[in-house]
DNA sequence: TCCTGGCACTCTTCGCATGCGAGTGCCAGC
DNA sequence: GCTGGCACTCGCATGCGAAGAGTGCCAGGA
């Protein structure tokens, strides 16, 4: 077990390194933090921390930098979440309050988060699977062509085209629309399949094919996982990384474009609260030298999607976590109101 | 006026520079292209080209690189559009054919264009202002709350919430829905305002406020310019630029996030055909060392939106133009079919 | 037992001088 | 108007040495 002072040394190293972006030495440490001991003592502590794998030196006779393990300890034990200041909170609220629709909420959230953290922001669209159905609309575009529009309680709208096997009368359509809505409106997506199971039985034989097809399209839309979209912003902040970074920025940009990777990453964070993944804890190669801070957000008590930030492992964790948490909270409020 | 051979020299310089990314000298030129003259002669030609501002040397005793003016001449006079090969065309078609809805078409187009050109691709969503209305749907979510859903002929769906001044009966809603659709379905957006002008008169006095409000929301949605969205992809290709590029990639990423800038840029290209803007021809600082190749696309004869590519001024213009044109053509077909 | 000052050692970084090579510009000759 | 030759200019890589930062270790003291 590490002594109290060694933990303080580690904390100081992380803070200084995040601030200066340069390996930090024993002398500088004692000057900037009053640890009450001499550089030599700190050197001993550092040596111990290095043996335990919390810090490392890029090359002999350079200062130390934290390892992923070091950051992990820092995040778990040594640092809290820095709360937003009152003006910041007001700014967040003002900025988000202007949103006109769901797309706009997401777009504004991304911009906001990127600006606050000066890093890359990622916001997942409210997921379908946890939401409830607000309304299902059916429109006859042609005698044998129906457009299915699904509206969720989070304001999301999905549409699908259905090519019917047989012409489908306006009356049947109205009937189906009414029956469908009375059964599923307000219900959770997960419950829908069972609720509509026997619906085709209520129709004339000639219409059943079409009804089944509409229903299966609806169910497809509900489960369609790759329809989980997300919005990314603040990629320009990647250039703030290092000086070495042609090498490091590239795979990150590539990973960001592969939304699948990000969705998987967000999905893996089981913790309903905040999750921080650091460096090699992220399976995906190319994000190995980045950290991801993510948290669920949602209207009401339950999280419907995630949002977060991607940045260098050398990031201001307390500040980033504070911003992410605050933004998630306000977005939840906005969604609950609309 | 430049002699034929000098134009050939310019063409050779552009081609070599695009290929090698290094300033090209007189000796290398004569070796790689059989111009039929000696390096000394080429040097004289280069000197003349430099005096006219078509090429420049980064520093004394280095080869020449084309200036923006040089690229302009190259694009206008010296190079054609390189057609896609048959396999490439098949690949484009296959890739786009799998799309399920409008979002998917746009997403696939961006990916495709980025891959083909190995540059940053930009695709504007089919613009509302030039489309026609397919259907307007009204849903009562609460006694005094109506959701307006607008469906366009390009498959785009816009929704807006309307808070009514007074409760609005289901019958009135159905009436309004029917009247509205009979008037505007199939009509161009630009014509809608006049078509619905007198619609409130047909309703009871108590409902007129709500009807007016629904209509004005509809009109707002139609003209809302900042709802012109676009999708961007292939930003990782920016890293292929130079070695110097922490400086150059940053403003480009920033400009790309400012979608306003890109929309303005795409909007400025009046030419219905392909437009190429090179370097300083682009007003926006930060895109000064990039070129933009854009073209309109659309279902049927008319362009409904633009798509294009952003890359370094040092790009393969013929190839890029070929890819952009081909993709635009196929996207148009896809939209016409759906 | 733990902290401290001192000291030698290591390694990176920076500045500077040098040599090389690519490329140019110009000129005289064909 | 083209060509070969030649001197000149720079940028770039290389090598060397000094400076500086930081470490590790050790002996001495609380």
UniProtKB/TrEMBL annotation, chains A, B:
Domain annotation Heat-inducible transcription repressor HrcA C-terminal: ranges: 103-321
Supply the InterPro entries for this chain: GAF-like_dom_sf, HrcA, HrcA_C, WH-like_DNA-bd_sf, WH_DNA-bd_sf, WHTH_transcript_rep_HrcA_IDD
Transmembrane stretches in the record are none
Q: Which GO terms describe its biological process?
A: negative regulation of DNA-templated transcription
Q: Which GO terms describe its molecular function?
A: DNA binding
Query: Any idea which UniProt keywords this protein has?
Result: Repressor, Stress response, Transcription, Transcription regulation
Q: What does this protein do?
A: Negative regulator of class I heat shock genes (grpE-dnaK-dnaJ and groELS operons). Prevents heat-shock induction of these operons.
NCBIfam families per record: hrcA (TIGR00331)
In the record, the note on similarity to other proteins reads:
Belongs to the HrcA family.
Protein name (database record): Heat-inducible transcription repressor HrcA
Q: Which organism is it from?
A: Streptomyces malaysiense
Give the gene that encodes this protein: hrcA
């Amino acid at each position: 077990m590490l002594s109290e002072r060694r933990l303080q040394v580690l904390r100081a190293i992380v803070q200084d390194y995040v601030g200066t972006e340069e390996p930090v030495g024993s002398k500088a440490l004692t000057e900037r933090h009053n640890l009450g001991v001499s550089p030599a003592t700190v050197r001993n502590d550092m040596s111990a921390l290095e043996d335990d794998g919390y810090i490392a030196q890029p090359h002999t006779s350079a200062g130390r930098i934290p390892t992923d393990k070091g950051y992990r300890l820092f995040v778990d034990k040594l640092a809290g979440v820095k709360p937003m200041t009152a003006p910041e909170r007001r700014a967040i609220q003002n900025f988000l309050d202007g949103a006109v629709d769901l797309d706009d909420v997401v777009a504004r959230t991304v911009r906001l988060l990127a600006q606050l953290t000066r890093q890359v922001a990622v916001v997942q669209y409210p997921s379908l699977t946890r939401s409830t159905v607000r309304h299902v609309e059916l429109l006859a575009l042609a005698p044998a062509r129906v457009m299915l529009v699904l509206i969720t309680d989070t304001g999301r709208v999905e549409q699908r085209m259905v090519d019917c096997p047989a012409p489908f009368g306006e009356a049947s359509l109205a009937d189906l629309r009414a029956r469908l809505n009375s059964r599923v409106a307000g219900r959770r997506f997960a419950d829908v399949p069972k609720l509509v199971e026997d619906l085709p039985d209520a129709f004339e034989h000639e219409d059943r094919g079409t009804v089944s097809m509409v229903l299966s399209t609806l169910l497809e839309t509900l489960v369609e996982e790759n329809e989980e979209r997300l919005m990314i912003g603040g990629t320009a902040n990647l250039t703030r990384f290092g000086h070495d970074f042609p090498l490091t920025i590239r795979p990150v940009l590539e990973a960001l474009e592969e939304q699948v990777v990000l969705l998987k990453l967000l999905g893996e964070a089981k913790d309903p609260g905040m999750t921080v993944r650091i460096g090699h804890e992220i399976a995906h190669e190319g994000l190995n030298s980045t950290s991801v801070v993510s948290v669920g957000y949602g209207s009401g008590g339950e999280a419907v999607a995630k949002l977060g930030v991607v940045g260098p492992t050398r990031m201001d964790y307390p500040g980033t976590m504070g911003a992410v948490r605050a933004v998630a909270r306000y977005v939840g409020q906005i969604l609950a109101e609309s």
